[in-house]
Design goal:
167 residues, alpha/beta, Hypothetical Protein Ychn, Chain: A, 15% strand
């Protein structure tokens, strides 16, 4: 009888260990988030290479979904403003990019669509698009056109949004 009890106890203990190992790890604590009730952030995206921009946009999306950001009382508000060379990366006209960069261009498009789906606001500086030779009609449809991205960044910061540069 004692052997059966020990066997059951061992099985239950092993099951508990397996269950605890399968649960997500407790959210990491960030001292900078202590006492923060809402997250409002604007990302100044200027990365000009497809690989760099794809990585940065993916990290922005991961950050938006992070449990530490979600722990705030309110839904986070993220805005991404494309300025400078980054405007070329969110156009459907990708003729100027070599074949080895096409996968990153496709990843950018997919990430931008997912960002919009999750509620991240997306804007593009039309001044920069014109300077970079990007036809505004070719900009991905989920991105709002603003005449001057700097004015947009100034406005968001004046409203209390934290600025995160992504160059």
């Amino acid at each position: 009888m004692r052997t059966n009890f020990d066997a059951v106890r061992t099985i239950l203990l092993a099951g508990l260990i397996l269950l605890l190992g399968a649960l997500p790890a407790q959210a990491e604590e960030y001292e900078g988030l202590q006492g923060v009730n809402s997250i409002t952030t604007v990302f100044d995206v200027r990365a000009g290479t497809p690989k760099s921009a794809a990585i940065q946009l993916d990290l922005i999306l991961q950050t938006f979904s992070d449990d530490n950001i979600r722990a705030a009382d309110e839904q986070p508000e993220f805005v991404v403003v494309f300025i400078g060379p980054a405007v070329k990366l969110v156009s459907t006209d990708v003729k100027g990019f070599p074949p080895e960069e096409q996968e990153y261009i496709e990843q950018i498009e997919s990430t931008v669509k997912e960002m919009a789906r999750q509620g991240i606001k997306l804007e593009i500086c039309i001044f920069a698009a014109e300077v970079m030779g990007v036809d505004p009609a070719t900009i991905l449809p989920t991105i709002k056109h603003v005449r001057n991205g700097w004015i947009s960044l100034i406005g968001y910061q004046a409203r209390g949004y934290s600025l995160v540069p992504a160059y």
